Amino acid sequence: MTGVVTGIYRYPVKGLSPDPLARVTLATAGALPFDRAWAIENGPSRFDPVNPRPVPDISFLVLMRDERLAAIESRFEEDAQRLVILRGGRQVASGLLQEPSGRQVLEQFFAAFMTDRLRGRPKIVGGPGHYIAEGGIPCVHLINLATLRDFERIAGRTVDPIRFRPNLVIDGPEPWSELNWIGREIVIGSVRLKIVERTARCAATNVDPKQGTRDMDIPAVLRRELGHIDFGVYGIVEAGGTLAVGDTLET
Predict the structure, then answer these.
(1) What domains can you pick out in the chain, each with its CATH number?
(2) Strand bridging mode 38-42 / 23-26
(3) Distance (Å, rounded) from C-alpha 164 to C-alpha 107?
(4) pLDDT tens-digit profile of 129-153?
(5) By the 8 A CB rule, do 248 and 4 touch?
(6) Among 17, 146, 197, 220, which is most buried by a count of CB atoms within 10 Å?
(7) Of 248, 241, 187, nearest in space to 28 by CA
(8) What CA–CA distance (Å, rounded) separates 187 from 195?
(9) For 158-171, what is each residue's pLDDT tens digit?
């Protein structure tokens, strides 16, 4: 079975908007470079940047609980490792993520923007080489546009694929067929992925990624119509290499 890559995305700061890429180079057993490299602590957490171990997502500002995050746009400048925050297309904050002073500027913005959701002072943690996810294992998240189109039919409305926070968006395979790839290897460009797990969806998918409002209950629709809450799959990079939008996927 074949398909094609239609989109590549990473999320340099957990919970913020995606950074689209035309191509990416993946290391064996790695995630996309800078994917979820930073997160915004919602008050003190157990995250230790010197000895990082997985901590619960609720330790951070995340869409699952903090839908207002989707009302802002973030841009990541990789060379400088600068994060730019925009509202309505207008820049409202900017800072170098590697510099304490840069993080402080950004933290001050989130302290004001998310004031009623905070349990303490927001603090940006992480950095290059980190992968801040509850499971803690670097992976690549893949969704299938054919599956999305079938879900739109079931839900009776259009659904932005960014709701599902994918790293790779593919098209071509039959709807829902990717859920049966567990334990199999797929090849995209010069990268080989082993599909290891279905993606169980949470309340983060209920948030409109452009408006910052909760306007759906995607897990409930999945459970009611299909008997599960899975949409997308996780893959581990078995052999690193480069892949690009337009590359063919072979299963």
Answers:
(1) 2-30+136-250 (2.40.33.20), 38-126 (no CATH)
(2) unpaired
(3) 26
(4) 899 988 889 999 999 999 999 999 9
(5) yes
(6) 17
(7) 241
(8) 11
(9) 999 999 999 999 99
Structure tokens at 114: 């998310």
CB 120 within 8 A of CB 132: no
Question: What would the 3-class secondary structure string for the chain be?
Answer: CEEEEEEEEECCECCCCCEEECEEEECCCCCCCCCCCEEEEECCCCCCCCCCCCCCHHHECCCCCCHHHHHCEEEEECCCCEEEEEECCEEEEEEECCCHHHHHHHHHHHHHHCHHHCCCCEEEEECCCCCCCCCCCCCEEEEEHHHHHHHHHHHCCCCCHHHHCCCEEEECCCCCHHHHCCCCEEEECCEEEEEEEEEECCHHHHECCCCCCECCCHHHHHHHHHCCCEEEEEEEEEECEEEECCCEEEC
Structure tokens at 234: 């996780």
The pair of structure tokens assigned to 89 is: 């297309």
Residue type, 177: S
End-to-end Cα spacing for the chain? 5
User: Is 36's pLDDT higher than 90?
Assistant: yes
Rounded Cα distance, 159 and 157, in Å: 6
Distances (CA, A) of 113 to 24, 70, 109: 32, 12, 6
